[in-house]
Inverse folding.
């Protein structure tokens, strides 16, 4: 019995190894084992049929070749099983047993939460819109009623949906003003978590007791929100710090809700026109990425350091983080003494208010247009008025980043606005957004001209409607705003509201033009022009030195008939691998077809020496060639199925 078990194990291992090597791909252990077991189960009956018939009819004939043919047929059955399994259930699409149990538990929890969110939406009258009914947004009363229902549903849904509503409240390109006004009422304030739970988080992040790193730690929080709460503390070295601690257990809740948000967005996109037009799926994905970053306080610490390094104005400060004490769920930062801007602005004079407003605007424009790293949520609660009349920007969970190309396009956009040039604004705008296949540029230019005549003429004070009109104009012409650019307009729209409350009558357009004239204008003085020309000439000098020789060689080669162009095809290794794979599959297909054709011809031949009374040597070779043809064809098929899944 033991010898039989060992033989079976060896045979299973041999069949599994042979099937994987012949197909040229790796398969999961379970399906490979099942294929090998199937081969072992087939090997016995097939060998009995072939070898037994030979032994009975031709006792003097050795059954070796028929035994090999039987094992080849069994191996072929294992390979057919693997190919069919790969076609029906691609590798990696079904989790293993441990993963399956975990996935089942998560699915049960997600289903309960999904049903609860669905009940909340239905209770607030939003069920018809999930079933495919497009919202009636024609009448202001209908918009206000729907917006109120949406705000109440999001508020009842919890932290993730409150955050989603706050993000939507800044998207004037997607929602009418009634929705924006209603969603701005969402507040992110909750009851603080008990100290015992917060202490466990702090201890886990520090790797030891709180007393080892802090001389004192206030148990009562300074403020509490849905994701984190803030405590005052003092380090053993004496510095006063602010400690931001993530609420226990919030990460799994947010992850589960983000999955529900993505599913709801996909459902709405599939069933309603307004969701498809608004790109609700992309919005949900961008929101999920931003919220996951907000859950990792190490990202916020890096954002804080990056924005602080990019701001050169000493009148605008950022708290200094303590990376050594910070972690994924805890952020320790310098404590700045002051009051929120909304509470401290009453003690400021008109001139001080205007100067602070100008400083905030110029700092934000410098971060956006020159440095590419900017605070994306400068609302009054995130601006602190310090005791020395300087200001500080707080809460760096939302930070935007722009590459050089986007910064250059924004600079051209601002310069064109300063020149009142609708064509220049349109060109810069088309550089900022993905250009659609068809767009009426003339109509876009006229719409920009109307926008500028409405909001950017002398004597007209800009307000929050300006950014809403800009978003609606962009959306009306089929332009989708990338998340990076949307963050810029959101930050500008938010700071406009902050500055309006701080200094009523503050002309944000005039100040932006003044900033563009001072920081983005080309050199105008004679000395500046001369310096710029000299710098460009120094950079171009090596090229200019080589240019005559290069031109002379090209002209000489053309005159003598030796002019040629060297083009390297498939210089990219990925292209070479792709073409090599195609050639490999084509070669295997030809070989499989050739072997199959030869097998058919040999099987149809009755001539040749007899191996048995019914089978000639040619026919035996034909059977083996048929097996070879099937193996080659299966190898091509499994590669095709695997590539289709990866694409």
């Amino acid at each position: 019995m033991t010898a039989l078990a060992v033989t079976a194990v060896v045979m299973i291992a041999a069949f599994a190894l042979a099937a994987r090597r012949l197909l040229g791909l790796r398969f999961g252990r379970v399906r490979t084992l099942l294929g090998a077991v199937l081969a072992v189960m087939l090997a016995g009956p097939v060998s009995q049929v072939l070898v037994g018939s030979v032994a009975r009819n031709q006792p003097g004939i050795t059954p070796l070749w028929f035994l090999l043919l039987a094992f080849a047929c069994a191996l072929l059955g294992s390979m057919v099983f693997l190919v069919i399994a790969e076609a029906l259930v691609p590798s990696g699409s079904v989790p293993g047993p441990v993963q399956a149990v975990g996935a089942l538990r998560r699915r049960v929890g997600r289903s309960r939460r999904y049903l609860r969110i669905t009940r909340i939406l239905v209770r607030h009258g939003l069920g018809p819109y999930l079933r495919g009914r497009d919202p009636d947004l024609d009448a202001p009363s209908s918009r206000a009623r729907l917006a109120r229902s949406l705000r109440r549903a999001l508020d009842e849904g919890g932290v993730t949906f409150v955050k989603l509503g706050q993000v939507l409240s800044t998207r004037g390109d997607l929602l009418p003003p009634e929705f924006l006004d209603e969603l701005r009422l969402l507040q992110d304030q909750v009851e603080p978590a008990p100290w015992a739970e917060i202490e466990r988080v702090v201890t886990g992040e520090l790797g030891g007791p709180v007393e080892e790193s802090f001389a004192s730690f206030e148990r009562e929080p300074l403020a509490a929100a849905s994701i984190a709460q803030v405590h005052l503390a003092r380090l053993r070295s004496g510095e006063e710090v602010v400690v931001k601690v993530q609420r226990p257990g919030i990460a799994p809740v947010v992850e589960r809700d983000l999955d529900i948000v993505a599913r709801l967005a996909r459902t709405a996109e599939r069933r309603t026109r307004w969701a498809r037009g608004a790109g609700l799926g992309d919005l949900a994905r961008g929101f999920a990425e931003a919220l996951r970053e907000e859950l990792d306080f190490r990202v916020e610490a890096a954002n804080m350091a990056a924005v602080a390094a990019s701001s050169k104005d000493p009148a605008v400060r950022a708290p200094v983080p303590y990376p050594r004490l910070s972690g994924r769920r805890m952020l320790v930062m310098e404590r700045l003494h002051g009051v929120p801007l909304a509470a401290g602005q009453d003690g400021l004079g008109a001139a001080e208010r205007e100067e602070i407003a100008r400083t905030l605007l110029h700092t934000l424009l410098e971060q956006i247009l020159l440095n590419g790293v900017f605070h994306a949520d400068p609302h009054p609660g995130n601006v602190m008025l310090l005791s020395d009349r300087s200001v500080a920007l707080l809460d760096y969970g939302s930070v935007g980043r722009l590459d050089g190309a986007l910064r250059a396009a924004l600079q051209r956009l601002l310069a064109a606005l300063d020149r009142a040039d609708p064509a220049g604004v349109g060109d810069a705008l088309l550089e900022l957004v993905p250009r659609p296949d068809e767009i009426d540029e003339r109509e876009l230019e006229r719409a920009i001209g109307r926008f500028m005549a409405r909001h950017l003429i002398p004597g007209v004070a800009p307000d929050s409607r300006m950014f809403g009109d800009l978003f609606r104009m962009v959306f009306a012409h089929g332009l989708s705003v990338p998340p990076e650019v949307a963050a810029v307009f959101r930050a500008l729209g938010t700071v406009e509201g902050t500055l309006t409350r701080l200094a009523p009558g503050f002309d944000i357009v005039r100040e932006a033009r003044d900033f563009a004239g001072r920081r983005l204008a080309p050199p105008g003085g004679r000395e500046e022009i001369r310096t710029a020309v000299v710098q460009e000439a120094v950079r171009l000098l090596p090229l200019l030195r080589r240019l005559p020789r290069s031109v002379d060689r090209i002209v000489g080669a053309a005159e003598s008939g030796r002019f040629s162009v060297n083009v390297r095809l498939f210089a990219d290794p990925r292209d070479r691998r792709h073409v090599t794979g195609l050639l490999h599959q084509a070669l295997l297909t030809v070989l499989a077809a050739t072997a199959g054709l030869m097998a058919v011809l040999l099987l149809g031949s009755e001539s040749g020496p007899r191996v048995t009374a019914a089978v000639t040597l040619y026919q035996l070779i034909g059977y083996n060639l048929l097996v070879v043809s099937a193996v080659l064809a299966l190898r091509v098929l499994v590669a095709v199925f695997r590539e289709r899944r990866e694409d």
Notes: The longest helix spans residues 526-559. The longest strand covers residues 228-235.
